[in-house]
Amino acid sequence: MVELRKRREAPSNLPEPPLKKTTSATKAKSEPESNAKAGPSVNGTSKTEAIKAGDTIDLEGLGGEVETQDGEETNLKKLVNESKTGVVLFTYPKASTPGCTTQACLFRDQYTPLTATGYSIFGLSTDSPKSNTTFKTKQNLPYTLLCDPKATLISAIGLKKTPKGTTRGVFVVSKTGKVEAAEPGGPAATLEVVRKLVKNTGLSSSENVEKPGVERDPQDVEANDIERRGAANPQKEDTDGVRAEVAAEVADTAQKLDEGKD
């Protein structure tokens, strides 16, 4: 005969198992990412998406500090405040490379008409002050080059490559913080963006805009148009003048030859 033994009851006063320690890493995993860095303030609200043309942005602290090719610290807000109309930033991947040289020289050759309405032009890259100084000196660039080795400003205006590098492009912001252009593009395309913008700005602020019901003297209109064309393209005006002189000399020579034949 088998004797059944009664099981012992588990003691009721056993200590509770120790709680797992919550480390900072575990806590960070369990908590939602609510403290992620927000993007620049756009139209009065904080956004993480890219800045685009038409946005009004808060320039305070945007992009942090950068250096000029001379090693002077500055920032976007300061540059905008010092300008008359606003700031043009054209970005380039690396100083003294063929594409970047082409882009820099296009802005150099059009510097006078591009700044005629009060815009201040700057080149922006991750190059060192030394590299940008060499670039500026060699190409005889009339504008300041900004050095942004950590790409903080380049990233803030949406022209940073992922994971590393700079997208060639252009960014224009007015004195009031309105973004007037923000787009990537090739050397000629970035120049064209600014040329169109300057042209529109010049037309909107021109004193020669016709007023309804006010007649203008045709001679004044023609004179003003000639003056505007000359200011917008001084090189063409000089070229036309030379051509006119050459044509006049040819005509005089032809006339003398004809007179000799007689």
Low-confidence stretches: 27-38, 207-216, 236-242, 244-248, 253-262
Structural class label:
alpha+beta
- What general form does the structure show? elongated
The strand order across the widest sheet is: 4-3-7-6-5-8-9
Rounded to the nearest angstrom, the radius of gyration is 32 Å
Termini Cα gap: 159 Å
Describe this entry's structure for a reader.
The chain has 262 residues and is α+β, with helices and mostly antiparallel strands. The chain has nine helices and nine strands. The chain has helices at 24-30, 76-82, 98-109, 111-114, 129-139, 152-156, 187-205, 218-232, 234-261, and strands at residues 41-42, 45-46, 66-68, 73-74, 86-91, 119-125, 144-147, 169-174, 179-184. Strands 4-3-7-6-5-8-9 form a seven-stranded mixed β-sheet, sandwiched between helices. A two-stranded antiparallel ribbon has the order 1-2. A hairpin with a 4-residue loop joins strand 3 and strand 4. Helix 3 packs parallel to helix 7 and helix 8 packs across helix 9 (234-261). The longest helix is centred in the C-terminal third of the chain and has 28 residues, at 234-261. It is elongated and about 110 Å long. 24% of the residues are buried. Mean pLDDT is 78; it is low at 27-38, 207-216, 236-242, 244-248 and 253-262.
